[in-house]
Design brief:
9 strands, 207 residues, SH3 type barrels, two-stranded antiparallel sheet, 3 helices, alpha+beta
Length: 207
């Protein structure tokens, strides 16, 4: 059994040597054809131009990206605090910065400059035209007339003054003196003295 195995191994080895010797040049040529003959460029870091980054001391966690350099333009996206994007230009006053913002028309957006930090020199670019309102508010005169209520002028009644107030007067009919010309006050005082005197006599008798 060992001799048969050794013989089989020798036959296989000889066959492989023959195949390699015959087709070795073909294999080597196919491998060499895959090796590029031109020099590949080496990727190295290069400046990306002016960039802007959202300030970390901003009051909000993100800032709006608008379609133009004004709050009148539509909001097309946001940038979060610390995010960095390439800058393309700025307005003549420098209040708004044009940035590269993929995913929108022309891959361009605008951010308010006090909310970002600027690195590099940014050229001045021409801002887009001022946006026009999507709808112009109009008032239908017929519909508005239904809500206008006109009150006809009415004449106020003529003021008639009331009659004068008549205050009645009453005469004092009470007698001021008793017959004989004695004033009533003296009579009352005398009766009071008699009453006190009578009370005193009754108190003394009781003792």
């Amino acid at each position: 059994m060992n001799r048969k195995r050794i013989g089989i191994l020798l036959i296989i080895s000889i066959s492989m040597a023959v195949v390699i010797s015959v087709y070795g040049d073909i294999f080597e040529g196919s491998v060499n054809a895959q090796i590029p003959t031109v020099s590949l460029p080496t990727v190295t870091g290069s400046p990306q131009g002016p960039i802007v980054s959202v300030r970390r001391d901003a009051d909000q966690d993100s800032i709006n990206v608008r379609s133009g350099p004004s709050a009148k333009y539509d909001i097309i996206g946001v940038l979060i605090v610390g995010q960095t994007v390439p800058a393309r230009g700025r307005t003549p006053g420098g209040d708004w910065i044009q940035i590269f913002y993929p995913g929108v028309q022309d891959s361009t957006g605008w951010v308010y400059s006090p909310l970002v930090s600027i690195s590099g020199s940014i050229p001045i670019v021409e801002p887009p035209p001022t946006p026009t309102p999507r709808t112009t508010p109009t008032i239908d005169p017929t519909l508005a007339a239904q809500f206008i209520i006109e009150l006809p002028p009415t004449r106020l009644p003529t003021f008639t003054p009331p009659p004068p107030l008549v205050i009645p007067t009453f005469e004092n009919e009470a007698p001021q003196s008793v017959p004989g010309g004695i004033p009533i006050g003296i009579v009352i005082i005398g009766m009071a003295v008699l009453g006190v005197f009578g009370t005193l006599i009754s108190f003394l008798r009781g003792r």
